[in-house]
Amino acid sequence: MRNAIDHSGRLSTLSPHERSGLIFAGGRATRLGGVNKALLEIGGRRIIDRILHALEPLVSESVLLTNDDSLRHFGSARLVFDPEPHAGVLPALLAGLDAAQGEMCLAVACDMPFVSRPLFEHMLGLDADVVIPRTEHGLEPMHAVYRRSTVKAAIEAALARGDRRMISYFSDVTVREVAQEEWAAVDPAGYAFFNVNTPADREEA
Questions:
Q1: What DSSP designation does 152 have?
Q2: CATH fit for domain 17-26+36-204, picks 3.90.550.10, 3.40.50.300, 3.30.1360.30, 3.30.70.120
Q3: One digit per residue, pLDDT tens: the chain, 205 residues?
Q4: Residue 191 has what DSSP assignment?
Q5: 20 near 63, Cβ under 8 Å?
Q6: How far is CA 13 from CA 5, 7, 98, in A?
Q7: Domain residue extents for the chain
Q8: What's this model's pTM, rounded to 2 decimal places?
């Protein structure tokens, strides 16, 4: 096993053709009128459109992972239906990595209207299998970068032994945490990690 270590090398030579955007859009939000959060408008623009705009220069494809038929005809992203809806973050991430064509995958939740392109650009320059921010609330797996080949195999092994914890596979890959003092240099207020879960969140956004 490889221990989780911090690499200082750069991955900036990777072109967008070797990257995939993974957007995780689960079921409809009952607290927000039953509409899929990806389709909610913030500032006159749907969250999904905001995410795609942020990711577009960084990736060659965007994969929308969902179990919601309302997104079936969303044309600007490749739609992949989640084989295990509501099974948790780890199975969903595995499904996304399995569907991705790029080696480096940028993962985002569909309820994050302020995805930070500069933060992802910074994270893509860090050499690790998993590059993941840490906030006061803990790790942020849905604004993170994953190396498909190594992380997919490690997650498969974790799930095979019945371990569905988000960090269950970390001991088998290299992990680079992005601490607050680092990500705050490009996103001082931490808007990238803001989620719209309630009407109050939507109003705040």
A1: H
A2: 3.90.550.10
A3: 333 333 333 344 456 668 999 998 865 555 555 667 777 888 788 888 899 999 999 999 999 888 766 666 655 778 887 777 677 789 999 999 999 999 999 999 988 999 999 999 999 999 999 999 999 999 999 999 999 999 999 999 999 999 999 999 999 999 999 999 999 999 998 889 988 666 555 555 5
A4: G
A5: yes
A6: 21, 16, 24
A7: 17-26+36-204
A8: 0.84
